[in-house]
Structures are given as structure tokens and as C-alpha cells.
Amino acid sequence: MNEVIPAKPRGSDIREDAGPAGLTLSWGTPSGRFRRLLSAAYLSFFLALWSLGEVAAVWALVTGSVSPLIIIWLIFWTLAGTVFGRIFWLLLQRGRPESITLGTEMFVYDPGTSPVIEPYVLGGYWTFRPMPGTHGFYRELFSRRRPTEAGREAMAGLRLDRKGERQRLSFDVGAERREIGAGLREPDREWLFAVLQHWRRGDGFAKPNHDIAVSGPLES
């Protein structure tokens, strides 16, 4: 007997769209293109000032004003410029939501635009932890967020657990564990877990004709 999928939580951030590739569940609202470009233009002013400081420090070294203080300052100034240069580059990219597309036999997980830059968008808000200055922040900032395509066997490692105080939904791709929906509310994450379990068992979630066919409601 098929297990019934619970109703989607009221006020859910997860959107549904049935298309030729299957059912797409997406969430997260990346900042609009205009706001991101405006933020990049604002940040470019500080990057210009950073460049002047960088050039001045290099010039001091070239002309013989070698000082341990200048060298240490230049190292940290360069690292800071690299971080903000990366943020500037990401702000220029077109935003896209995090999503999962469930096909007949395969699923595609798209991690979407990194939420790590949201605080740097004008009017943005904190949607990502850990905070700037931590290893996790820099790893996320410089990671390549490419979509992953896999079969049902990848969902064998589907897990909803806790890491410290934080609930985590994840699955295995080879030897790598991928987290899904880090920015979702816990009820949304639990509902998504139930949907993914249903699809993994092959309980008629995605049909060849791409109609949504489930044992329980997808809408509350």
C-alpha cells in the first residue's frame, strides 16, 4: 500500500511546476537582476579604492620601501580584495532558485545561486550560515554550484537528521554527500523529504506523460 504524502505546510516557500522534464520543486527567491547589478555597481566603488591601495603598496615595495608591516598589510589587503572580487563576480551572475526536478527515472538537483551573497545585495538579508570569516563561508563562496543528475539509487542515502541544532536533508552522490534546502523552514524540509522518499520508491510520482500522480495532496 502506498504511503500518503502529507499536505504541504501552510505558507510553504516551495513552488511546484509540472513540465516536460517532470515535476520541478523550487524554493528561494534570488534577488532581482536590477538589485544585483545595482549592488555590483555600488561594490565597484569600493573595489576601485581597494585597487588604489593595492597599487600604492606594490609601488612602495618596488621602489625599495620594504617594510614587514607593508608586506603583512599587502597580504591581508590582497586576500580581502579576492573575497570581495568574488562577491562582485557573483552579483553580476543571473540568480536562479534552488530546485529538484523529478523525472520518470532520474532527478536533477540544482543548488541554485549561492545564498552567501544575499547580505551584499542592497536590501538583502542573511539567509546563509555560517557567517563571514568562517571556513564554511569561504568554501561556499568559492564553490562551483553545478546541477547534479542522478538516478533513484542516489536517493538510497536520503537522510533527514540533525547536525548539532540544525536539521539537515541530504543525499549521496558517489562518495559525496549533498545537502538540500539548507535555507528552508523545518516543516518544508520534512515535506520535501516525504516527497523524495515517495519518488525514490517509484510510487507513481512522475509518469511518462508528465502528469503529477501522487497518493496524497501536493497542495494544502
Quick structural summary:
The protein is α+β, with helices and mostly antiparallel strands.
Main attributes?
220 residues; alpha+beta; five-stranded antiparallel beta sheet; three-stranded antiparallel beta sheet; 35% helix; elongated; disordered C terminus
List the helices and strands and how they pair.
Layout: E1 15-19, E2 22-27, H1 33-62, H2 68-92, E3 98-102, E4 106-110, H3 135-141, E5 148-151, E6 159-163, E7 166-173, E8 176-180, H4 186-200
Antiparallel strand pairs: 1-2, 2-3, 3-4, 4-5, 6-7, 7-8
Helix pairs in contact: 1-2
Task: Please tell me about this protein's structure.
With 220 residues, the chain is an alpha+beta fold. It has 4 helices and 8 strands; from the N terminus they run ββααββαββββα. It has helices at residues 33-62, 68-92, 135-141, 186-200, and strands spanning 15-19, 22-27, 98-102, 106-110, 148-151, 159-163, 166-173, 176-180. The strands form 2 sheets. A 5-stranded antiparallel β-sheet has the order 1-2-3-4-5, with no helix packed on it. A 3-stranded antiparallel β-sheet has the order 6-7-8, with helices on one face. A hairpin with a 2-residue loop joins strand 1 (15-19) and strand 2 (22-27). Mean pLDDT is 80; it is low at 206-220.
Q: Give the biggest sheet.
A: 5 strands, antiparallel
Overall shape: it is elongated
Provide the structure class. Answer: alpha+beta
Q: What's the number of helices?
A: 4
Secondary structure tally: strands: 8
Rounded radius of gyration (Å): 22 Å
* First-last Cα distance: 22 Å
Low-pLDDT regions: 206-220
Along the chain, the helix and strand elements come as: EEHHEEHEEEEH
**Order of strands across the biggest sheet?**
1-2-3-4-5
| Helical residue percent band | 25-40%
Query: Into which percentage range does the β-strand content fall?
Result: 15-25%
Average pLDDT for all residues? 80
